[in-house]
Design brief:
This protein is an alpha/beta fold. It has a single domain, classed as Rossmann fold, CATH 3.40.50. The protein contains seven helices and ten strands. Helix 5 (187-195) links the parallel strand 8 and strand 9. Bound molecules: adenine. The site of adenine has 12 residues, from strand 5, strand 9, strand 10 and helix 7.
Length: 269
């Protein structure tokens, strides 16, 4: 008998795109974290892989690391400032966070940034160890410039991108975040933190917010409380004691958030 030849596949340009999530749906999410201990469970959970050095989006010499992959409808990039070249510890703090945020936003053009990490909490403001907060506002508490207007520039208070549906659906607490480059708290820091009306205190948030705002990228700050700043225990001790267990709470929170974000538009958050 006579058989029709198999139909040739259409040329690539005519092939339909992979089924897209709804129009305007978020596709690229950049997760910025400072500590490897906090990030590793998420890297595993989302099955992210480390970008090899030879195809790095980052300039030569940078210690910044990137893990990436597709999860549900999203492309995820998780970046960290990496280890300090001299001391070998995670490059925590504002300087490294803003640099890796800057380079990542430039290269990846994310639709949304999530800055996730641990924080100190104030029990007088309702924080307990293990709580996960979304930051409604961020500000600095260690940039004192007592000259009119420079004072406000130093504090750099700003509202974050409001995500009322994430807050409501996922049961996070809401509070203001104050950022500084010290884990402990000097009396001057304390005074500024009070003025900032902060419930949680970290070492990166306001720096990431500053960079995200430059590039008009919405950013969400999710902070899990490892230590009570206005409590009895020494901060460093309490932080190290709770880091692993609170990291688990943080990672559950970030996973729930990513699950919620998948398929949604920025305006749905
Ligand atoms: N991260 C965790 N605990 C912290 C604290 N007390 N201050 C700043 N950053 C923190």
């Amino acid at each position: 008998g006579f058989e029709l030849p198999a139909m040739a596949p259409p040329p690539p340009s005519e092939q339909p795109d992979a089924p897209a999530a709804g129009a305007g749906a978020i596709s690229k999410v950049l997760i910025v974290m400072a500590m490897e201990t906090e990030a590793t469970p998420l890297v595993n959970k989302f099955r992210l892989v480390e970008a090899p050095a030879h195809e790095s989006i980052f300039p030569k010499g940078a210690t910044w690391t990137r893990f990436y992959g597709n999860y549900k409808d999203l492309h995820l990039d998780l970046v960290m400032p990496g280890k300090d070249v001299v001391f070998g510890v995670d490059s925590v703090g504002t300087v490294s966070a803003s640099l890796v945020a800057y380079a990542s936003i430039q290269a990846l053009k994310p639709d949304l940034i999530i800055n996730a990490g641990t924080a100190g909490g104030f029990k007088t403001k309702g924080a307990s160890v293990g709580d996960v907060f979304l930051a409604s506002d961020v500000a600095f508490h260690d940039r004192r410039i007592p000259i009119p207007v420079f004072d406000m520039y130093g504090v750099g208070a700003r509202k974050t991108f409001a995500a009322p549906n994430i807050l409501k659906e996922l049961n996070f607490k809401l509070g203001k975040l104050s950022t500084g480059d010290s884990l402990d708290m000097s009396p001057q820091d304390e005074e500024m933190i009070l003025k900032n009306d902060a419930t949680v205190k970290d070492m990166e948030g306001a720096a990431v917010a500053y960079v995200a705002d430059i590039f008009s990228t919405p950013a969400i700050f999710v902070k899990a409380v490892t230590d009570i700043v206005d409590g009895e225990k020494p901060t460093a001790e309490e932080f190290l004691q709770n880091l692993i267990s609170v990291t688990a709470a943080l990672d559950v929170a970030v996973t729930k958030m990513i699950d919620f974000i998948s398929g949604k538009r920025i305006t749905d958050l």
